[in-house]
Design goal:
3 domains, transcription, LysR_subst-bd, LysR_HTH_N, transcription regulation, 5-stranded mixed beta sheet, WH-like_DNA-bd_sf, Arc Repressor Mutant, subunit A, alpha/beta, single chain, D-Maltodextrin-Binding Protein, domain 2
């Protein structure tokens, strides 16, 4: 198996058929089919189901496609880094709820004061950010508990509460517990659906009405605004509701507290720039990595 075979396979999947991929790759179809067959034989499993109009990934094919994309991206990054070795680049991953951290004055001033520093920002879920870290696609990632920390080390911010946001006629400072919203439809992040539901059922003895689940806090905020419903979001995400007619109240349910973490690969030494960037948040109660 080599990087060229991974490119061939990715192109077949992206184009939908072997014939279209052959045109894209400027090669004849039979050699491309032979390369795919050779790859499947080497891996000992089928990667594609060949249909009349398009190919379909098998379960093994989906995994291999993801890994091929990562390897090709790493190859491209390596070539880019070698060509631009004199330039400094900091690659950061961030979840939607943590994105306001990158808007703070300390970060803005740091970027302005270092015009030769190139910043690359990838956004995704905590799981995707960790995958990007382990694939060497990013240098550090801003993620949120809970997560599997087996192959990473992380600085932890202080735990923070969830926040209920919604129309001003519903949100009240005295309604600062989840149970206060048991009679309302809720909008929650998919990651916290089970946490919220289990806590509500097992501790508060009610089954919450989860109307909408989303993978992005900005989506939750949007639907809260449009539908005039209650959304549950982490406190760090509060700046995202600016200029919206929404009110917010911190929930005192400690079972729902989470913590922002700055993660990096466990066995790698991060760059000086990455260390400087992490120190920008040193005044926010960061705990040593573990």
């Amino acid at each position: 198996m080599d990087i060229k075979q991974m490119l061939y396979f990715k192109t077949i999947v992206d184009e939908g058929t072997i014939s279209k991929a052959a045109i894209k790759l400027h090669m004849a179809q039979p050699p491309l089919s032979m390369q795919l067959k050779s790859l499947e034989e080497e891996l000992g499993t089928g990667l594609l189901i060949r249909g009349r109009r398009h190919v379909t990934l098998t379960s093994a094919g989906r995994l291999f496609y993801r890994r091929a994309c990562q390897m090709l991206a790493l190859e491209e990054l390596t070539l880019h880094e070698m060509k631009n070795v004199s330039k400094e680049t900091l690659r950061i991953g961030v979840t939607s709820s943590n994105s306001p951290l990158l808007h703070e004055n300390a970060v803005i001033n740091y970027i302005k004061d270092n015009p030769t520093l190139h910043l690359r920002i990838k956004e995704g879920t905590t799981r995707e950010i960790i995958d990007n870290l382990l694939a060497h696609d990013i240098d550090i990632g801003f993620i949120r508990t809970p997560f599997d920390g087996l192959n990473i080390k992380a600085y932890f911010f202080e735990k923070e509460p969830m926040v209920a946001i919604g129309p001003q006629e519903i949100i009240d400072e005295k309604k600062n517990h989840l149970i206060d919203y048991k009679d309302y439809p809720l909008i929650v992040h998919r990651r916290y659906h089970s946490v919220i539901t289990e806590y509500a059922i097992n501790t508060l003895s009610f089954n919450p009405n989860i109307h909408i689940q989303a993978d992005d806090c900005r989506t939750s905020i949007f639907w809260s605004h449009v539908l005039s419903q209650i959304a549950i979001i982490p406190k760090t995400a509060l700046p995202l509701i600016e200029n919206m007619n929404l009110k917010a109240v911190e929930l005192e349910d400690e079972a729902l507290y989470t913590a922002v973490s700055i993660a990096m690969r466990k066995d790698d030494e991060i760059s000086q720039r990455a260390k400087e960037f992490i120190r920008l948040f040193g005044t926010q109660g960061l705990k040593s990595p573990h």
